[in-house]
Amino acid sequence: MVFDNLILRYFPFFGVFYSGGLLLSAYYFQYFVGLNPCQMCIWQRWPHFAVIFFCLLIILKKKYAVSLLLFAALSAFITSLIGIWHSGVELEFFYLPEGCSSSGLGSINTVQDLINKPIISCNVIAWSFLGLSMTNWNTILSLVETSIFLYLAYLIKDLHHEKIKQL
User: What pLDDT was estimated at residue 70?
Assistant: First the structure.
């Protein structure tokens, strides 16, 4: 019963911290390590923001927890799909999307800055750990997050039905 109450009360924070942690890691590598993201890397970040949004909505509207949790799972799955596509581009299984590069134009002040900025292509692996690129790690971790969200949605729905039966 205590475990049930903990799950029902605190599960939205899991998504906020999990996706938030993945985003913070990406921004850390971008701003502190100097690894500029390509366009597909940026695409992979947006669904994580959606996960955080849906989890924050769950905190505000617990009545719709299961539905919102399924939307969070869908968002995590979308970033996984983008990651699979990006991994395929890195491994040259898929064609590079047209215009898929980044020059980090946000910090351009002069023409010389533009000339000196490197252009990051989506098929270049800039960082890897244990033989997996950052894209691979994001894909794996997002699939884990998707699975956890689906399991939590099932568990919460099951717990809700148990409480109704007890009444």
Answer: 92
